[in-house]
Amino acid sequence: MKRQFDDNLYQFDRPQSSYWEATAPAAALDVSAIMRDDSCEVAIIGGGYTGLSAALHLARDFQADVRVLEAGHIGWGASGRNGGFCCTGGTGVHGQDLVRLVGLDAVREYYKAQLAAVELVRQIAADEHIDYQAQGDAEVVVAHTARAFKRMHADHELMTRHLGLQAELISAGECRERYYDCTENFGALVNRPAFGLHPLRYCRGLAAAASRHGARVHAQSRVIEWSRSSDGRHRLVTRSGTLTARKVIFCSNGFIQEDLHAEFFGRAMPVISAIIATRPLRPEELAAQHWRTENPAINSRHVLNYFRLLPDQRFLFGGRGSTNGSPDNEQRTYADMERRFRAIWPAWSEVEFEYRWHGLICMTASLCPTIGQLAADNSVYFGFGYHGNGVNTATWTGQQLANWIGTGREPKELPAIVRGLSRRYPLPGLRQTYLRFGIFLARQLDRIG
Ligand SMILES: Cc1cc2nc3c(=O)[nH]c(=O)nc-3n(C[C@H](O)[C@H](O)[C@H](O)COP(=O)(O)OP(=O)(O)OC[C@H]3O[C@@H](n4cnc5c(N)ncnc54)[C@H](O)[C@@H]3O)c2cc1C
Hints:
By secondary structure, this protein is an alpha/beta fold. The chain is 33% helix and 22% strand. Helix 2 (49-62) runs parallel beside helix 7 (199-212) and helix 3 packs across helix 4. Flavin-adenine dinucleotide is lined by residues 12, 45-51, 69-72, 76-79, 81-85, 222-223, 251-255, 257, 260, 273, 275, 306, 318, 358-361, 384, 386, 388-391, 394.
């Protein structure tokens, strides 16, 4: 099996020692590995938000006979490791650039779905009693330079006038009074709806809800071979058992094993994102940077950072991870991130970090999520490529795929820009080179401001 990063990133039998793993209650749930040959109507490859949401909706809304096969434990992938920002996004380009690429009507249609996706997360949590520790009611996008703040005026205009989104432009002074201050505060755009959550609690909550409604979830069940049996059913082989199914949903996003099915080869560009978290900050430390918000925040850099204060006053700081995932490279990335953190909030220059972890997000050549049914085989469905914004988008994708299978019709809510399989990267073997080049360019743009 050929993967794009160091083996270190694919240790399915071990959890990443993250803040989320340390603070999520254990799931009281039978998610034992598939232990014999079995069959079902719909098999799902990947037990993150996409797969679990699809399983929940299929079992609950359509009483479907559905099973999830997950290579690690539930939430082993990005769904158990992310920053916990539940907000709109999900494409590789934003604002005016996306409009230039696909047109205003298509962007408006996409954001309508994005808003529905944030609401869906809230609704599932309420309906299924998932305590995911919600925090805040907005996402604060802070301009890291005066030039970036100028660009935000155009974004604000687009969002409020043409896309019907709730966005507020505030000065650096207002940002300092209402949210926080730092060396890179030149004003901010405040987007709603958005909030922070505990990603692993949410993921385990989805798995519990799916199981309660009749789905079977199998952890430690990595699919190592995908073929067809003589009666046309899909055969998903794991080390401990084989699952046969009429339909398959393929949703392993950045951890994609792309040699499982020829149609998926070369469609995904996994990228490492990394997070560090401090010890709990004392009230006087928070006051020193005027920090007074639970809202998740990001900066306006092309190679951006995302950050939030956690319920126990630790500070989470995320950004682009290492280039190849090797342990050495990883350590250098964490050290760079710590330097960046200390430069942005000088009053916290002595604060120690207690957690460091990383995971894979997924980009596509179309720069948009890719959701649908294979043209070459209409019993295979897929959803991936959320560009670092999958809390809402993956949950919503799972629901859309469930509706598609449950009703037998493509959901009309699927925006045109996410519909169908994203084109293959040209010369897929060069994806890491494209990525490095893209990051180099983005860093140059960040230097200019
Ligand atoms: C560090 C980090 C920070 C992020 N921060 C945010 C954020 O703040 N907000 C936000 O919206 N998004 C964020 N994201 C992105 C978000 O986490 C993902 O988009 C989302 O979790 C994707 O869900 P998924 O179910 O599609 O994929 P995943 O959660 O990655 O799940 C895919 C699963 O497939 C499994 N798998 C792979 N191969 C096989 C196989 N052969 N057989 C069986 N199982 C297999 C993997 O083990 C994995 O668990 C972040 C991601 C990372 C890594």
